[in-house]
Amino acid sequence: MATGQRRLLPRAVLVIVIAFGIVAATALMAEAAIVTVQFNELSPRPVNNVLIDGVNLNYVQNGSLSQNATFNFNTGATFQNLTDPVLEGDATGTLVLGFVNPTNLLSFAIARNTFSNSSAVVTYFFAGTSSSRTETVSLAPSSCSGCSGFAEGIFSYSNKYHAVNHVHISFPGATSLQDRFAIDNLTFIQ
């Protein structure tokens, strides 16, 4: 080949390379599945180190793991956005979600037994970076007929460019063990 000439791939090789790329991309997308954890998948237990469907759950109080949050807890309450059983715990701590595979989609229903307007703070950490973002979720008393009046809300995140690998959920103003939270329908891409 003379200097300055480009070597071109034969068309058959180029078609094979493109076809392989399409098949590989399709296989990767097929492996990803949207999962919803309804907190009835396991028997009741503290959430610490519970790994379910690709999310690791932990609950922290005063910087240490705590037993004050329960997977598969029946509140006995009637909610607008949650259905027993739920993940329930003491609102003075922080619920930590760690995803085995970073997710571009995340949502969950959240309630707090304040019976008035309240909030939850959701901090999510992006995979492969030291960046994070914090959002406040407004919680308002349930208005459905027969609801118990818990303050409820929905958190939702979707971004095809920035996957989340960890989430911290906390509750400003919580002061006692009587201040409780509940989470249900944790949805993410596995």
Number of separate domains: 1
Low-confidence stretches: 11-30
Shape: globular
Total of helices: 1
What is the helical fraction, as a range of percent?
10-25%
- Largest sheet: number of strands, sense, barrel closure: 14 strands, antiparallel
Radius of gyration: 22 Å
How far the N terminus sits from the C terminus, by CA atoms, comes to: 50 Å
What do you see in this structure?
- By secondary structure, the protein is mainly β.
- It has a single domain (35-189), classed as Jelly Rolls (Sandwich).
- Helices cover 11% and strands 47% of the residues.
- It has one helix and 14 strands.
- It has one helix spanning 11-31, and strands at 34-37, 45-46, 50-52, 55-61, 64-65, 69-73, 86-90, 94-103, 105-112, 118-126, 132-141, 151-158, 164-170, 180-189.
- Strands 1, 2, 3, 4, 5, 6, 7, 8, 9, 10, 11, 12, 13 and 14 form a 14-stranded antiparallel sheet that branches.
- A hairpin with a 2-residue loop joins strand 4 (55-61) and strand 5.
- The radius of gyration is 22 Å and the shape is globular.
- The model is unreliable at 11-30 (pLDDT under 50).
Secondary-structure blueprint of this entry?
Layout: H1 11-31, E1 34-37, E2 45-46, E3 50-52, E4 55-61, E5 64-65, E6 69-73, E7 86-90, E8 94-103, E9 105-112, E10 118-126, E11 132-141, E12 151-158, E13 164-170, E14 180-189
Antiparallel strand pairs: 1-14, 2-6, 3-4, 4-5, 4-8, 6-7, 7-14, 8-13, 9-12, 9-14, 10-11, 10-13, 11-12
Keywords for this entry:
190 residues, mainly beta, Jelly Rolls, 14-stranded antiparallel beta sheet, 14 strands, globular
Task: Summarize this entry quickly.
The protein is mainly beta and 190 residues long. The chain has one helix and 14 strands, in the order αββββββββββββββ.
